[in-house]
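GED domain-containing protein (Glarea lozoyensis), 100 aa
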Amino acid sequence: MLLTLKDGMRPNVEDYSVSLAADVAAAYYKKPVSFSAYQMFHIFSPDVAWDLTDEQVDLLGSEDTRTVTERAELEKKLEILENGLSGLDAFTTRSGGRGV
């Protein structure tokens, strides 16, 4: 019974992370997204986009070198963390959840 109770009280990290991200975004962005999308439609209309050259589109849609490098480093860190989590999950399963 204690194991069942313990498992039921284990926090769901993904749900908590999503909730936290939504709360932070709501606090950071004061205006609703729909209002911003409406404004952007009038600022950056399809007519403007149609007239852009390929080079201009590349400039608008590309990331700077620093961002690309940072993303690659973060992906490596994420892979390491996911592998560690898998190892911990396997250990917990083998040990039957004791001592954790």
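The mean pLDDT is 78. The two ends are 17 Å apart (CA to CA). ok done for today
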